[in-house]
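User: Hey, quick favor. My workstation is busy. Could you predict this chain's structure for me?
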Amino acid sequence: MNAFVLAGGLSSRMGRDKALLEWRGRPLIEHALDKLRSLGFTPRILGVRPDLARFAPVIPDNIPARGPLGGIEAALSLTDADLNLFLPVDLPRLPVEFLRWMAARSAIADAAATIPWHSGHPQPLCAVYHRRLLAHISAALSQGDGKVMRVIAQAAQAEHMSIDNFQIEHVAAAQRSGSLPSEDWPHSPPAHTWFENLNTPADLARANGS
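Assistant: No problem, here it is.
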C-alpha cells in the first residue's frame, strides 16, 4: 500500500494556503505527512505544489483543474500498489490509529474503495482506492467530470467491484467500548471532531484553541 496527502485545493474560503497554515505550531502539511510516516509509509504530496517539495515528493495532476479527483488519478497513475491510502491536508485531528485501522480494513475488504462516512456524509478524500479504478477515473476527468463519489461508484461498477462504506460512529463506539485496544485510541479527540475540515479562519482559530 502507498499513501498520499491531498494538498492541491485553492483554499478560497480560508483566504490563504491551508497546507502551510500552522496548527499547534507546525504547518498542516507536516502533521499530515507525519501521520502517514508513523504508519510506515513514505508519503507523497498531490497537487500542483512545487513549493511543498521540501516536505515530500510532489505529484502534479495529469489533468489540471479537476479538483481532488485529479490528484487521486495522478497518484493511481504512478503507484506500484493495488491499494492506496489518501489523506487530505486539513484534517489535523484525525487520529493516526483511525488511518491504521482503515488501511487494515481495506486490505481484507477486497473492494474498489474503502470510504468512511461521518454523520451521514461520505468522506471520499480520506479513503483507500484500488488502482484498477484508474482507467475509468482518467476517462471521466477527460470528459470534465470531477465528482469524486459519482466517478468512483461508476468506476467500481465497471470493474465489477464493491465499495466498502463504513460509519466512523461505529468505529468510535468500538474504540470507546475497548473493542479496539490500542494505546493511541484513549488519547484521540472526540469522534465528532475527526473530520472537521479547516476551511475558514474561524475553523483554524477554533482548532488551535482545542
